[in-house]
Amino acid sequence: xxxxxxxxxxxxxxxxxxxxxxxxxxxxxxxxxxxxxxxxxxxxxxxxxxxxxxxxxxxxxxxxxxxxxxxxxxxxxxxxxxxxxxxxxxxxxxxxxxxxxxxxxxxxxxxxxxxxxxxxxxxxxxxxxxxxxxxxxxxxxxxxxxxxxxxxxxxxxxxxxxxxxxxxxxxxxxxxxxxxxxxxxxxxxxxxxxxxxxxxxxxxxxxxxxxxxxxxxxxxxxxxxxxxxxxxxxxxxxxxxxxxxxxxxxxxxxxxxxxxxxxxxxxxxxxxxxxxxxxxxxxxxxxxxxxxxxxxxxxxxxxxxxxxxxxxxxxxxxxxxxxxxxxxxxxxxxxxxxxxxxxxxxxxxxxxxxxxxxxxxxxxxxxxxxxxxxxxxxxxxxxxxxxxxxxx
Length: 392
What we know:
This protein is of the alpha/beta class.
């Protein structure tokens, strides 16, 4: 290895090590002092688990922790639902009209407003809104529900910003094909679009959960009588933070570290399984491709310029009112199939041992025109009189 290359690698490793030291040395000090027998943060008096035992007995800290986790979980769920729906709506606003572009830009700007504005501005504005609502309704007071609504309000834009890029990269032809095959819009979205944007939804949910646990300013102005962990720690800062908070922070850090390790291990396992199968197909998808039983493909306006090749089995399928044009269908087994009101035109290749067995219906005259090659058919059974007409 050349001397210059070694020098560059040494600088790179030194920079990475310095960055990791800068990021994790405060956490390491906090974890170490959670085992300190003394309350002082400047003296070391030996190892102890006293603060972990007292943490479990402290009702104030455990209550704040419960409120924090509950608010984070609920706000993440609501933010994912609202944010995903908003992202789909924004993505659907497409067109060449100037009014459509203006409307989309205005809505995106309003969505990003809570992210770009300072937290103290958002917190004060939400506090004023909730105070006026409570006074106008003469019911209830600021507390858990106002804190939950505040967290949902700043989590929704994070989900929108995570889902929108996935929607732009998604294959919309799958959704349109599902609609053409008769699926309702909601079913088509769940089956075709949702799997493509799922990584963005998961990312948005994780960001929303983290922001909710970490937030101090908005929570301080909107919590009312409720107290979460960030407000409790902020109120302790003046008199000195208890070592019990160090113990709680250590537990939270270890839990998050284990979750990240589990997620990375699961992801690497999935990638390893997919690398063994070049197409990334699961066993279930391979079984589905090998034998599609009792399927119905109807009223499809056009299946054109398509190659359907090396498909092992298409069985018990009803193909009706469908136009199949400019299509190569090769090395395919078509059995127990009803082909009805279908036009097969300009088909360049139907060959290499197509197996058409027990075909129950080929009627309502099918047009097979300009077909250049129909040969090497290994088995064509139970011909219909109309088949004789078609063959002539």
